[in-house]
User: Fold this.
Amino acid sequence: MSAAETDDIDAVPARRPARWHIAVFLAPAFLVYTAVMILPLIETLRLSFFNVVAGQMQFVGLSNFQTLFGDPRLSADFWNALRNNVIFFIIHMLVQNPIGIALAAMLSIPKLRFAAFYRSAIFVPTLLSFVIVGFIWKLILSPIWGIAPWLMDLVGMKWAFAPWLGKPETALVTVSLISVWQYVGIPMMLIYAALLNIPDEVLEAAECDGITGWSQFWKIKLPLILPSIGIISVLTFVGNFNAFDLIYTVQGALGGPNGATDILGTLLYRTFFGFQNQMGDRSMGATIATVMFLIILAGVSLYLFVIQRRMRRYQF
Amino acid sequence: MSNARTAPVRTALIHLALLSYTVIALFPVFLTVVNSFKSRAAIFREPMAVPTPATFSLIGYETVLKQGDFLGYFQNSMIVTIASIALVLLFGAMAAFALSEYRFRGNLLMGLYLALGIMIPIRLGTVAILQGMVATGLVNTRTALVLVYTAQGLPLAIFILSEFMRTVSDDLKNAGRIDGLSEYSIFFRLVLPLVRPAMATVAVFTMIPIWNDLWFPLILAPGEATKTVTLGAQMFIGQYVTNWNAVLAALSLAIMPVMILYVIFSRQLIRGITAGAVK
Assistant:
């Protein structure tokens, strides 16, 4: 990566032999980024092949991964966290993105009054920290305060209320929906931007052909915003498989009740740091981080090399 | 537009839908702030009511300010966030300028290398980051957080800023060169002032995840002296779970700075997003 220091070859080498300013401009960002992000990442990947054997750090090949995937104690936790994480992601894709698209489609209607107000208001939860969001919803859903049962009574649904966060069957869905509530602003904004970028001529042409309203959305606008939907999906994927804060705040590091909301982020935290009577384990922590890295890398590559390539982009 | 007769009904339905979702988005925040100003009995008896002189109480805020060092937490959050944003903007703009202005061998490779961090979260390197911070004695310092957040913010900043810098006119820069300006003066005196709007967008994008982060403060700087507001609120609430006044007050205190900044910067933020800065 010493590209910054090299002289120009394809520019005019005769007049400006050494352009040190390029290196000076690049150096601070390159150094901080490399030292604090890339090297630790590589070191973490490397650590996943090492473990303490007889009091000494030794290269153990893939045995950490074998433990993670096969050891009866740890692997149960791991597979559980992975499954929960997949469900967490699926709920986001099924709920967050359609709602975001619907909101953006409504906001982008020309000459809609108060559009700016709606847009700013709906984006508010996205700005709040997970800690705030988590605790607010914990209070609202708490049977002690009784806000949620009271609200459901308004629509005659009080019988359906249950302490959702406390029951293993419903806890994961509830936490996912809280996260959806918080993050719906991001797909909304990005889709909104994509919809605004569709030129008027295209829509006018559609109207001349008698394509308006619903069918205009499905036939004209949706295909044009597909690239943005792809980006949102990959952002959601990366965000979900590296989520931690919300679960930690709402359900604690154990991802309670009974591991029902344990995801890879909380598992990494517990394994690396230790929690209650579990000892912290650096090597296994690095192993879990490596698995998360591979999952995210796989998702991003799938997007970059398969989905994005096949997607048709329209240039206006 | 074309079918004028159904338009009012359709518009009304759309307003209804958007308004309902606005209520869903704002209601929890409203509920928290409103109830933080009420006495304990009123919180439970009439959670929906706005505080009246009879139910108004600041007991929650008193507890928070007495028990937790919230002013200190705010200060830490401010210092960490501002320092990180300043470094991200300065280093990011310099690197973006180098990448967008000069042709040199490895330019594309360097661009890709610096863009890796947009997709790969820095959190995955936590194990080794902590190790490095322990080795350099930076654990429980704000410097550790600033370094991590600078590294975290740089990739997106470089990406956005280099897109903007490509739009700065070449004639202007060449005129500067003919007038004998050094490359550094061209960057600081000609280009930087022109990309100021993009810098503001990047600042807002960088700020939100830093201010809200729980993971790195929890791991790198959990000490009392370096706690950020997010971590401080988290721990305080964990301790005072049954003291509803205090919990609601702490939440409201944590919400307020974000809301104030949002009111000031919301235009900048929304314009930044909708201008297609993030694609």
User: Anything to note?
Assistant: Chain B has a mean pLDDT of 86.
